[in-house]
Design a protein that fits this description.
about 50% strand, about 400 residues
Length: about 400
């Protein structure tokens, strides 16, 4: 393994500049075609609605209602994919204004769209087609539905490709600049990544086993450091994965010398070549730091960011929830450039949210409130573009 790439930035400021939020439109709740059905907003742990944005169009997979909505940036409903049995296709407007497409969805989940406007969405197989192990534990139950640009769907993608067996639990799905589909699954051993061609042919199957994760650079092999594989995200423009690993160290009680907990140490991002299976030089990802005053002293807590995604210009986006919204860290891997910004969000008014990063580097979100949901975005793409021009 070659040398570690350490990202440095200017002196840390206690104040992080905010990015202006742009509210594009809102969506009321209900059973009609242009409404979201969230069922029980008090049970936010069971909300299964996700969204993504591509080229200014928003795609919302409303799992509770068994439907998918395609809307433009004004909130106009362009296409509705709906399950006829769920009651989500209750129409109140002229159907000619949007295209309704009936499809027997079963709990649609994560969603992504490629440059051809092919839409991919995670769906659960019928009970009789799910697979269990010998103990009755459900192992394989999810597939990826594929819809062409005209809304038709004649196939689905499983582990082996078109029509394959169901996947293990799908953490997320992605499409690349070559319109290749990447499915990231969670397994008992770590992660399993399936990389498909634009036609749905399986090209690579990449296991990422936690026990075989790279040791933290700069530490002895015998050091008591625990590696936790937190996120695996594909590069947008090349066949490689970014494996985010957070490292922790046991905390020892000063008096008893016994372990009393575990402390976060560092985050490294390991680029992994899909074709060779080899890790490239790791990148240090600076943590989020929060200062807490206590008894006339100040304590600094370091926390790892979540990995949001990669833009087509190669910027890496990381995010963490704060008391007043979200902090975003944008990293250009090999130029030692870092941008930190804050997204102001009042969490008291948000019951549930789904966030997405577009290929151009725009962060968008579906913010579910008590009486309505709203679509917002933050033009973080202009920040990274300004750096590239400088």
């Amino acid at each position: 393994m070659s040398a570690v790439v350490i990202l440095a930035s200017c002196r840390r400021s206690n104040v992080v500049e905010s990015v202006d939020e742009n509210e594009l439109f809102s969506i009321p709740y209900g059973n009609f075609e242009d409404q979201l059905n969230m069922f029980d907003l008090t049970d936010v742990g069971n909300i299964h609605t996700t969204m993504t944005m591509r080229d200014g169009f928003f795609y919302i997979a409303n799992g509770e209602a068994g439907k998918i909505m395609e809307l433009n940036s004004y909130g106009d409903l362009l296409t509705l994919y709906y399950n006829e049995d769920s009651g989500s296709g209750t129409f109140t407007k002229d159907k000619s204004k949007h295209m309704p497409i009936a499809y027997p969805f079963n709990s649609p989940g994560a969603i992504t769209v490629d440059s051809r406007k092919y839409m991919y969405v995670v769906s659960t197989m019928p009970k009789e087609r799910q697979e269990e192990d010998e103990t009755g534990t459900l192992l394989y139950s999810q597939i990826v539905l594929r819809f062409s640009s005209d809304g038709t769907s004649n196939d689905y993608i499983g582990q082996q490709g078109v029509g394959g067996t169901p996947f293990p639990f799908i953490r997320n799905i992605y499409t690349t600049s070559d319109d290749e589909l990447v499915v990231v699954c969670t397994t008992m051993e770590g992660a399993m990544v399936y990389w498909f061609s634009e036609s749905g042919f399986l090209m690579y199957k990449i296991p990422i086993v936690t026990k075989d994760a790279p040791k933290m650079p700069g530490t002895a092999a015998s050091a008591a450091v625990v590696a936790s594989v937190q996120d695996v995200v594909p590069d947008y423009s090349s066949r490689r994965l970014f494996v985010k690993i957070d490292y922790y160290q046991p905390r020892l009680d000063k008096d008893s010398k016994a372990e009393s907990g575990i402390d976060f140490v560092k985050t490294f991002l390991f680029p992994l070549s899909v074709e060779s299976g080899k890790y490239e030089s790791p990148i240090t990802i600076p943590p989020y730091e929060e200062t807490v005053s206590e008894d006339y002293s100040k304590l600094i807590f370091k926390l790892p960011y979540d990995f949001l995604g990669v833009s087509k210009s190669g910027w890496l986006f990381f995010i963490i929830s704060t008391s007043s919204g979200f902090n975003v860290e944008m990293v250009q891997p090999f130029s030692q450039k870092i941008i930190r910004r804050h997204l102001d969000v009042n969490h008291n008014n948000v019951l549930y949210y789904s966030m997405a990063l577009s290929d151009s580097g725009i962060i968008s979100a579906l913010l579910v409130g008590q009486d309505r949901a709203k679509i917002v975005w933050w033009r973080t793409d202009s920040l990274t573009a300004a750096i590239l021009k400088s």
